[in-house]
Amino acid sequence: MENGAAQPVIVAIDGPSGTGKSSTSKAVAAQLGLSYLDTGAQYRAITWWMVANGIDIEDPSAIAAVAGKPEIVSGTDPENPTITVDGTDVAAPIRTQEVTSKVSAVSAVPEVRARISELQRSIAAAAEAGIVVEGRDIGTTVLPDADLKIFLTASPEARAARRSGELKGADVNATREALIKRDAADSSRKTSPLAKADDAVEVDTTELTLAQVIECVVTLVEEKRAGK
Ligand SMILES: Nc1ncnc2c1ncn2[C@@H]1O[C@H](COP(=O)(O)OP(=O)(O)O)[C@@H](O)[C@H]1O
Ligand SMILES: Nc1ccn([C@H]2C[C@H](O)[C@@H](COP(=O)(O)OP(=O)(O)O)O2)c(=O)n1
């Protein structure tokens, strides 16, 4: 069978919050020598800019009017992913509760999605060895011709436990409710909602360790590259 290792490989990893997309994508990219793009960080970055500039998050037309203004730059080294807005490092401020609670509203605005999706496609096209891109609509909308599409899932309980562990003892029930609310908003928006592509491989990570999920995805990429 022909070995396509010289061709850039494009991997799309989608799924709801806390399913392991970021940890898995970074590790798979590092292991296979690919670039890595966290598209959620880009939506968080544009949301951070809207908040910092006093834009009314309740008003989609106000968001749409300025969606083209901030310059968002993503560094795609899986060992050291970076994100800046107009030259400012925003890696920490995009993770605040305030940004997390507003990101679904901002990312539902079609002008925001058009702008960010275009940026994502140009980053993927520039990745010489290939790239692992993680998000919500990568397999369905941003990169529908990806070589491999993965859709990660996990029970709300497992996802909340993982997230509240990260947030140093945050209340698991409150974290669970916030996750469910954000997933519902992301899944029900009109423009490119969170969804599994028909040709995506679904991996339920509830009972798997992170190492098992990484191994599973690496194997799937290697099988693709080997032309299986
Ligand atoms: N299979 C797993 N088992 C246990 N913990 C996991 C697993 N996958 C990820 N985690 C942990 O859960 C948290 C959320 O993972 P993350 O990769 O950020 O998810 P997502 O990007 O889907 O929101 C992280 O602390 C991560 O280390
Ligand atoms: N491709 C994407 C990625 C993220 N988003 C939106 C919807 C998500 O709630 C937010 C934040 O995504 P992020 O992956 O950082 O979220 P979590 O790590 O799961 O907390 O961005 C999106 O609309 N489309």
UniProtKB/TrEMBL annotation:
This is Cytidylate kinase. Residues 11-222 form the Cytidylate kinase domain. Pfam families: Cytidylate_kin (PF02224). Belongs to the cytidylate kinase family. Type 1 subfamily. ATP binds at residues 15-23. It comes from the Bacteria. It is an enzyme of class 2 (transferase). One of its GO terms (molecular function) is kinase activity. InterPro entries: Cytidylate_kin (IPR003136), Cytidylate_kinase_dom (IPR011994), P-loop_NTPase (IPR027417). Keywords: ATP-binding, Cytoplasm, Kinase, Nucleotide-binding, Transferase.
